[in-house]
Amino acid sequence: MKNILVPTDFSENCNKAADLGVEMAKLYNAEIHFFHLIHTPVDWVKLDKLKEKRYPKTLKEIGSAKSALRELEKKAEKENLKCRTFLEYQIETTNILKHSGHFHHDFIITGSSGTKGTARELFGSNVEKIVRKSDVPVIVVKEDEVSFPFKNIVFVSDFMEDVSGAFEHVISIAKKCNAHIRLLRINTQTDTNSIAAGLNPIKRFLEKFPDLKNYSMYVNNEPSVETGINTFLRHEPADLIALSTHGSTGFLSLFSKSIAEGVANHSALPVMTIKI
């Protein structure tokens, strides 16, 4: 991991994400970039300085954003990290992902406001789009205080499709943090198997990782994946939930819509999504 991107709206959850980004950058000796999108009533880049004065509210917002980005930069520099800050004047999520691709970020860490209130915040909606479209792993930080280094990482799948690529990202973080990996299979089929039979797909999957030691296996028979995750979290410790996503058929397609976004919105724990 060489470059970490932290999109921020300077909310409490995004500030937690910034703190996590700094800690992960320290752990990986990575460069960290803080990125803020600001909505402007006109194309601000093409606006001359004289005409900017017509929009005093926007000028004030830009000044506040620059100041907040500078504070984040100071926080990173205090930890002797390489840091850059970016302020862009559009409100399109694709800009965040284009920015990430341009700078070859290995990881995106951000905060989400979830679904509280009368309407989802615009930034919260953008986070959903980032989760859905990002080609690099995304960690979404929520209400709970982040426990880092992570000690317990829950990797959720039905293990019927090849999620090796996603799992390698989980292993990388687990090794850096000396974390225990809990492999959780949610069986949503009406023909529920015994626990022993339900573990077989996980066992077959782990044959690809013979050197993995610090892990445990679980299977939950539940009507939905999200219910299965919530049930599991009531009984087992977790600092991070990891999910793989893609857009084709089956379990993982369900993940990409209702689970990756749903868990990222509703879980109080940090959620990592990995596109495969």
From TrEMBL:
Residues 1-142, 225-275 form the UspA domain. It comes from the Bacteria. The lineage of its organism: Bacteria, Pseudomonadati, Bacteroidota, Flavobacteriia, Flavobacteriales. InterPro entries: Rossmann-like_a/b/a_fold, Universal_stress_UspA, UspA. SUPFAM superfamilies: Adenine nucleotide alpha hydrolases-like. Pfam families: Usp (PF00582). Gene3D superfamilies: HUPs. Belongs to the universal stress protein A family. It comes from Euzebyella marina. This is Universal stress protein.
